[in-house]
Amino acid sequence: MKSVKMMMMALAVAATMPAAAQFRRTPTPNDTLQSVRVSPKGDVTFSIYAPNAKDVRISAECAPFGQPVNVVKSDVGVWSATIPGVKDGVYRYNFVVDGVTVQDAKNDGVANARALAVVATDPNAFFVNKDVPHGAVAQRWYYSKTLKEMRRMHVWTPAGYEKSADKLPVLYLVHGGGDNDTSWPGVGHAGFILDNLLAEGKMVPMIVVMPNGTIETGGSIHDEVPLFAEDMIQSIIPYVEDNYRVLTDKDHRAMAGLSMGGMETMETALYHPEMFSYVWVLSSSFAPGDQNKYEAERIHLKKDAQRIMSNIKQLVFTQGGPEDIAYNNCKETLKLFDEAGIKYEFSEMPGGHSWHVWRHNLRDLAPRIFK
Question: I want to staple 344 with a disulfide (CB 3.0 to 4.6 A). Which of 29, 91, 283, 315 is the partner?
Answer without folding.
Answer: 315
